[in-house]
## 1
Amino acid sequence: MAAPHIDPPRARATLALMVCALLAACASTRVSFQPAAPGPWCEPAAPAVVLWATRWRADQKDVAARESAAAAGLRDFFAPAGCFAHTELRRVDALPPAAVPGAPDAARLIGIEVQELGPVVKLLSSAALVEGGTEVVFRAVRYPARADGEAQSVTVHWRHGGPGVVKGVASLPQDLHAALQAGLMAGGAAPER
């Protein structure tokens, strides 16, 4: 009886996929705040106006796709009454340095500036050969209710990935949603997942 023929390239590809699948189980989420985490910003009983803008680096690729993903992620996060009772999203060119007129007096005024939103891939950086995931960086600004108050600002850096993880742009709205949840609702260390 003859031994079955095994195609070496196919066997290597199958083995590589199995190794990547095992290593993908090592994915984790990390969140850091600059300055330190301010605590939760969400107030489920209050309405809010959220001004949002983007500030991409000069060499940013696929700006239109990232803008679309940012809009979808923000809409998905703020649409249900969870962070605030009701949220009105307003796209602006840049976040104002201080509160702007036009927000209802009872509403909280929040600014979100998306600075990074995309997949990250590092080749040959570890024994896994490929390490990747998604990175989200945004600056959140809480504007004061009174004109003489001072705005609070925090930059949130959220990263989900690990050895063997390769992600594309399809998950970017969900990744921004998760980063907003970790930054605005939790306001502290993100759980490992």
## 2
Amino acid sequence: MPVVDVHTHLLPPELPRWSERFGYGGFIRLEHTGPCRARMVKDDGQLFREVEENLWSGTARLADCDRLGVDVQVLSTVPVTFAYWAKPADGAEVARFLNDHLASVVAGARTRFIGLGTLPMQGPALAVRELERCVRELGLAGVQIGSHVNEWNLSDPALFDVFAAAAELGAAVFVHPWDMMGEARMRKYWLPWLVAMPAETSLAICSVLFGGVLERLPTLRIAFAHGGGSFPGTFGRIQHGFDCRPDLVAVDNPVPPRAYLGRFWVDSLVHDPDMLRHIVKLFGEDRVMLGSDYPFPLGEDVPGALIRSMPELATARGRLLGENALRWLGRPC
């Protein structure tokens, strides 16, 4: 069984100056500072992140995969490039550019890379069109979407057609947190990434469950990053809230959240053996997949090291390291 890392990020080596093209700002650009290094910079000049060539170079990625024992990487864009706040037509142009590049990298090493596209979710009809192009023309396995779309949570009726199209196409959906809640109050201590990002993922899961998305689309293959964020640690409270105040919680879906455990996937990026043990027990041995967040600093340095370090997971190791991912992606095991 191959080792499959479902959570890795990719950018093109050059990004258009979208703000000049569209006439307004907010976009990310790459400023190369050397042959193998660059800075991701916002339009206002604010540094977002220092990066290296493994963010854009397929060759560098494959060298790292060989060194780290990863057979297949699942590629998706960096969430800061979602650009859901842009005008829908402009967001569609950004998505097409990113998806064409990602598909070209996959085409260069089809046995080693699998692709997830990005969508202009602020324009659901455009998103459905780009999803169809990703799957039918570009050969991508699915898409990565954000934990919310501007003022819409994932339960919003405006987004349902996108999920319905994914289910009909057999496309995998990977939900990644972005545009973190409460960020203005979390300037110190890297708290947006440590506190708000896990909360964003829990928001996304609860929205999908309480909004009845999985109830209406039982074949939808949806996964959530970072081990489900804060959802596993607060699941008891979430279930109890449903039980004690159904008048506030069960307003769109009468099915309890516990009934959906085992109906969606999470990655293994939790950095702690007790938490990995917990999510495997909560979601099931067939619903947790290796995810490293390569090539970023909050990721797992050696993908799968935590899974391999736990003797009690020995019988499930093949599923966690590869088989579950292939089933979620709709690929043969």
